[in-house]
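Field reference: sequence -> structure
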Amino acid sequence: MASIHIDPDVAKNNPPHIDPEEVYYGPFEEEKPPIELRIATGGAGQSGLIKAFADKFIDDHVRETGCKPFAVAWIKSDTAGSFNNLSQGSADLSITYHPAAEDIAKQQGFTDRSVYAWRDHFMLVGPTTNPAKLDPSPRTSIFDLFGQLFRGAVANPAAVRFLSRYDKSATNVKEAFIWTTIGQTPWAYPYSDFYHRYTSFPFQALEVAAKLGEYTLVDRGTWYGVDQWIRDSMTVYMEQHDTDTNQTLLNPAHALVGTWGKYRDTANAFADWMIRDERGQKIASEFTVNGAVLYTKAPEGERKTNEAGMPFLPIQ
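Structure field:
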């Protein structure tokens, strides 16, 4: 959902300009064609997945439709910012990770299409010294581990710390859900000293957690995308996969098409391409960083086209 005032006229006719973090040209790097799709997201851009999508989508779409070459821009933003960018017309498509918030975004009117793009999972990581004495046995849940972490922080406040991105990102929302489920709100008054509020993007936040010896919640794409020394200095205390019965740490990525985006047709074409097995889904499921496959395909039965159940027509 958007957390700013929504003005459809401004979004359609005079949207705020945001400089892209990166611009991708596919096989047309030398030509530098104009941008005709702006994608807002955070971690998936930092991991390189958005570049992999963009380069292949440009190539496929130009060949399949005969349209002129174009470029794709990555607008760097966390989940909350991605909703806001879409609502004010500064992006044409956003990658978000919270189905309930996505439903509210539809009610707010700035998106009318969502497709299940890929699956990611969160991980609980922390210092190899394990000052909280976490015990990740096969029967231990993520709620058990957060409970152990809290007790460790109470018993040894000087050594046990938890880093929160504290930025309304999907990661922040997930860790807040886990904390409140065990009856704790360490960000509320009186503040818990062990709860380190560090507002930044995923890669930077994980690096700080590693340097300070803090526990934190992180997605697989970030964990395997950062420098090796960060992973060497930390331990994974819980990680979930598609095959697990418990999916508390699921991080489901959805592509939202903006209602008022300047390049709405291209955004719809990208969403169509994204849910095709031999196009976007293949890229997502085969994308690797440092030898690790980061993501998995969206469940076939949960991918969506448009309200009529038919794919949108490609742009011409």
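Note: Residues 23 and 73 are 4 Å apart (CA to CA).
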